[in-house]
Amino acid sequence: MTGCRYLFVSNGDKIIKISQPKNHKYKSVPQLANQDVLEVILYYKNKDRKPHQLLTVGFDRFRLDSNGNYEETEADRKRAFHNFFAFGMPSLLEEVESEDKPLPIPVAPIVPTYNEKRLLYSYINEKLPNLAADAPYIVESKIKALREKYEEFKMMAKKSKNRLK
Question: Which superkingdom, per the lineage (predicted)?
Answer without folding.
Answer: Bacteria
